[in-house]
Amino acid sequence: MDLLTLTCFSLVPCFVFLLLKPILERRNRACFVLHYECYKGKDERKLDSGTCAQIVQRNEKLGLEEYRFLLKTMISSGIGEETYGPRNILEGREDNPNLLDAYTEMDEIMFDTLDNLFAETGISPREIGILVVNVSLFPPAPSLVSRLVNRYKMREDIKSYNLSGMGCGASVISIDLVQRLFKIYKNTLALVVSTESLSPHWYSGKDRSMMLSNCLFRTGGSSVLLTNNVKLKNKAIMKLKTVVRAHVGYDEEAYACSMQMEDSEGHKGFLRTKHLEKAAARAMAKNFQVLIPRVLPVKELFRYSITSSFKRRGANGESSSRIGLNLKSGIQHFCIPPGRRANIESIGKRLGLDEHDTEPARMALHRFGNTSSSGIWYVLGYMEAKKRLRKGENALMISMGAGFESSNCVWQIMKDMNCENIWKDSIGHYPELSETPNPFEGKYDWINDDAVSF
Predict the structure, then answer these.
(1) Rounded Cα–Cα distance for residues 332 and 296 (Å)
(2) Are strands 394-401 and 333-335 parallel, antiparallel or unpaired?
(3) Residue 16 is assigned to a structural domain of this protein
(4) Helical (H) or strand (E) element with 242
């Protein structure tokens, strides 16, 4: 064999590697969802309208106008009779929470969803290679992620991450972290646990901008099992197509529009300012500039580029609030964060969606309330319970968090999704149940009918 032939043969593996490298890299970027579980509280933890009113009336610092404001906020929130609250608040101990209250709330949510997940999938906790827990307002030591490692006796080389302060967008942020880690650790199983701590963070003051959180947030959480092992592809229910994050914290108004703080009398709470909607719109616009070209067909992008100048301007020359694109040309399902009915409707209008598209978010809000970062998984659960999710379709998860950040991701449905979940006992009553008269209306005659603005 001459030198030239030998050299050519020696270069063959290099050429093969170069040809296969893009394929291997795509395989390494794979991120599949194998299963997810959402938390459903016990009946004794339900916050019906009467209980909510009693909790409001326990705050002796409030005057008649503050009572009116709170009850009108609950009336307009879109929340129903069957949401869940923390034990200490239902027991009347919201002014004196202790560390055990916070741990108990977290344990119930995390252990319940993970126990169910392990039982449903047959996966052992020892098989988990990556664990991410996000709880914005409760960063104890040892961390909550260490608490899970200890309870489930997970392996010693697990890659564990505990995220705090990320707000309602933390679940998608955690997904982004996992898919980046998947590029490093091959054939791995990962868990993302998302919830929020309400027990020690009940606001007992009278600042209206800080009282809103008491009305809107409810107990909830989710656990999601992911993998980058292509051998498990046939077991996956969804595949991650893209994640995009946009941060507008450089702007002072956006940074301060949603913030944990103390009021003028020293009461701790969570401030939501009038600039929140503006910050959310700005962050979402930045996000969609990157996201949309990745998920919409070229035909729709071309159509939009031709007609954009007309779509952006109304008859009076002012900018339109709608983005002008037909998102449904590339996305079939929309997991809008179930934060508040007005917010859902605002996002739906901005994205050009109809009532069918926003229905899952409105129903999730009515049944489970605003469960912070886990809320979008309750929305997905509603779609699955209604048997809407079909193989090959795309689902967009929209999330926003304090800071201010917009974090969105798109999933491709890998198989028809129709398994029973936490909606199984109530799905037959929706959407009709949410259209019945608001449970708060008619009970409090001293509440006037003026529209609430905040």
Answers:
(1) 11
(2) parallel
(3) no
(4) strand 238-247
Contact 406, 287 (CB under 8 A): yes
Identity of the residue numbered 202:
W
Cis check: omega of the bond before 368, within 30 degrees of 0:
no
Beta bridge partners of 242: 410
Helices (H), 153-201: 170-181
Q: For residues 406, 30, 181 and 408, what is the CA-based torsion angle, rounded to 10 degrees?
A: 0
CA distance 94 to 87: 9
Query: Does some domain include residue 327?
Result: yes
Which tokens sit at 44? 């004794």
How many Cβ atoms sit within 10 Å of the Cβ of residue 453?
7
pLDDT per position as a tens digit, 384-398? 999 999 999 999 999
Neighbours of 13 (CB within 10 A): 9
Are residues 137 and 166 in contact, defined by beta-carbon separation less than 8 angstroms? no
How do residues 241-275 score in pLDDT, each as one tens digit? 999 999 999 999 999 999 999 999 998 998 888 89
Q: Does the predicted model carry a pTM greater than 0.70?
A: yes
- Which structure tokens are listed for 413? 């449905």
- CATH number of the domain that 329 lies in? 3.40.47.10
243 and 224 housed in the same domain: no
Say whether both 208 and 289 belong to one domain: no
